[in-house]
Amino acid sequence: QKEVEQDPGPLSVPEGAIVSLNCTYSNSAFQYFMWYRQYSRKGPELLMYTYSSGNKEDGRFTAQVDKSSKYISLFIRDSQPSDSATYLCATSLGSDMRFGAGTRLTVKP
Amino acid sequence: GAVVSQHPSRVICKSGTSVKIECRSLDFQATTMFWYRQFPKQSLMLMATSNEGSKATYEQGVEKDKFLINHASLTLSTLTVTSAHPEDSSFYICSAREPSGGAETQYFGPGTRLLVL
User: Fold this and answer.
1) Which residue of B has its CA nearest to A96?
2) How far does the CA of residue A19 sit from the closest CA of chain B (Å)?
């Protein structure tokens, strides 16, 4: 079993749609939960991070963590073509960071 | 956010040659840097953790004699792929973490695409 499971997609939505991206993790000791966005042939850039269960909102992005079910989500409202990228979830314990496989998202105009 | 650079961004080499990739933290001193590799449509896999002034810590299954890591200063870590073979072709990404920072202070470089012919 992978430590972080993420559906690789691909996921294609029309512009303006709400996007839901999800991951599950296996190690309940993980403390930090991150979402990265990676454009093609580029390094990942941090979108959002949370430390505890609950929601965290930043503009059109909302990160949600449910530690009891080891489930993390990223919601994108009013999706734009510029949101087209691969989104990677990650969990961390100290300096040990584990990534999901990444979900490739395409937002069509 | 902080900036991490990598050089070169792309390299093509013949089988059997060695390739050096540099990773620099441009606006902070990084006592710890990380090296990942990423195959197409797959996630980042941690190869090794590079600590300034000491030996790198390699993940299980990563050959330390093949992937030489040197972290000679607080702003520079290098990864040398020795005697590269076609199966080493991949996207190599480094990251650097701010001292005393949490996971949210780990910044990634733009990656180096290696193609071994």
Assistant:
1) B103
2) 20
Q: Which of A99-103, B1-5, B56-60 has the lowest mean pLDDT?
A: B1-5
Interface test with B, best of A56, A95, A96, A98 (most B CBs within 10 A): A95
Contact yes or no for B4/B108 (Cβ under 8 A): yes
CA distance A28 to chain B (A): 17
pLDDT in tens, B72-95: 888 999 999 999 999 999 999 999
pLDDT of residue A53: 86
